[in-house]
Amino acid sequence: MTSPATTYASPFVLSVLLLVSIPVIFLLAPRLLPPKTLPAIPDADESEDLALFRRAILSSSSSATPTPSSAASYFFRRRPAPKVAFLFLTHSDLVFSPLWEKFFRGHHHLFNLYVHADPYSVLELPPTPSFRGRFVPAKATQRASPTLISAARRLLATALLDDPSNQFFALLSQSCIPLHPFPTLYNALLSDNAGPHGHHRSFIEIMDNAYMIHDRYYARGDDVMLPEVPYDQFRFGSQFFVLTRKHAIMVVRDMKLWRKFKLPCLIKRRDSCYPEEHYFPTLLDMQDPEGCTGYTLTRVNWTDQVEGHPHTYRPGEVSASLIKELRKSNGTYSYMFARKFAPECLEPLMEIADSVILHNVTEGVYIGCDVMNKHRVVHRALEGLNYVRNNISPPLFGYS
User: Fold this and answer.
1) Eight-class DSSP state of 366
2) Which domain holds residue 194?
3) Which residues, if any, are the signal sequence (predicted)?
4) Which of 23, 95, 272, 389 has its CA 20 to 30 A from that of 281?
5) Which residue, 240, 287, 284, is CA-closest to 88?
6) Residue 399 maps to a domain
7) How crowded is residue 54: how many other Cβ atoms within 10 Å of its Cβ?
8) Structural domain tally of the chain?
9) How many CB atoms lie within 10 A of CB 252?
10) Residue-level pLDDT at 61
11) In this structure, is residue 18 part of a structural domain?
12) Could you read off the pLDDT of 274-332 as tens digits, one per residue?
């Protein structure tokens, strides 16, 4: 027979257990229930990146501002020739490095190389001379994640810190190839001074009417991007670009937009999660639209994309006519790089490297510009060619 004390105690015990269980449920629920978002960037990675970015910003500020005692000599001393920083973002072997070696040959005083290789990737091929010792401290990257933005910013910061002469920053992947000789690219970058105050511009694709923008804007949730990124200022473009030093610093310094873009996407909207194709064009279009060309120098074929991947060229497709077709552009300049090429394409590409890809011709380099502008650009390009051949510094025409 149940005692009266037990009868009266039971509701009390149940109430206590209920009160205790509520906080336990709230504590354990996130661990027991499936997550609603994709993985976020680890706090440790974020802290290390911020420290790197601060050093890059401080270094850039100090190198750009002459001290009072040296101000007079600053404007009269010989300045080093501007360099191009090639930033390779990879998760596999740099199969096309023999082709890039041909591209770089004889111009090592005009460029630097930096490679961000996913630490979980297995690289079996030994690096060729230009790539040896050029790997930066890297962190894991994956699709549908802001980690690709972090990797690009990491490369930019490292290049800013490494050499003040780095004035242009070209982001490439392991599947990219050059379409022109190095002098053609160098001259195109130097001859473009249509930005504000005659400064150079960044070659970055910026679009605002792509059909997928709506779904991608809301990939992190409704109104998550507000107020920093209004819908009508959300932009889209290729993740492969060539930035000026001014814009590289702008990207590394940014915290406002990064707070939004680093947020993970919802799992149910994974298919609309491509933050690396939105962060850079959105940031630069907000802060300096006149300093950007609005188009990229990297050709990609999206005619038969598969699960977000562009067309991959196979060995049977490689030919002189393909290279000439890939160069064609609606912009002022022809395309300078192209992707995506399968590793097996190395042999046929090397066969036409000297006769086609790296054959030094200027015909067809300037596309879509009026006659007067073409003559102006060619004149500046010839000046730049003189700097390349004679390894001398160009005059001060406002590198930005």
Assistant:
1) B
2) 43-61+79-390
3) none
4) 95
5) 240
6) no
7) 13
8) 1
9) 23
10) 86
11) no
12) 999 999 999 999 999 999 999 999 999 988 877 778 999 999 999 999 999 999 998 77
User: What one-character DSSP code corresponds to residue 16?
Assistant: H
Residue 367 vs residues 109, 188, 197, 201, 333: alpha-carbon distances, Å: 28, 12, 24, 17, 5
Dist. CA 181–CA 118, nearest whole Å: 29
Among the listed residues 291, 298, 306, the one whose alpha carbon sits nearest the alpha carbon of residue 331: 298
**In what helix (H) or strand (E) does residue 113 lie, and over which residues does it extend?**
strand 111-117
CB 373 within 8 A of CB 379: no
Instruction: Write the CA distances from 15 to 8, 11, 18, 207, integer angstroms.
Output: 12, 6, 5, 59
Q: Residue with structure tokens 């590409």?
A: 349
Structure tokens at 364: 């067809």
Distance CA 149, CA 258 (A): 9
pLDDT, tens only, 369-399: 333 333 333 334 444 444 444 444 343 333 3
C-alpha angle 166-349-184 in degrees, rounded to nearest 5: 35
- Residue 27: inside a domain, yes or no? no
206 exposed, middle or buried (CB, 10 Å; 0-12, 13-18, 19+)? buried
Count of all residues that appear for the chain in the document: 400
Task: Give the SS3 label for residue 374.
Answer: helix
Query: Would the pTM count as exceeding 0.90?
Result: no
Strands 166-173 and 83-90: parallel
The token pair that represents 348 in the structure block = 């046929």
- Integer CA distances (angstroms), 190 to 32, 83, 201, 386, in order: 57, 10, 10, 12
Please report, as a single letter, which amino acid is at residue 277: E
Both structure tokens of 70 = 């040296």
Residue 393 exposure: Cα atoms within 13 Å on the Cβ side: 10
In angstroms, the CA 343 to CA 322 distance is 17
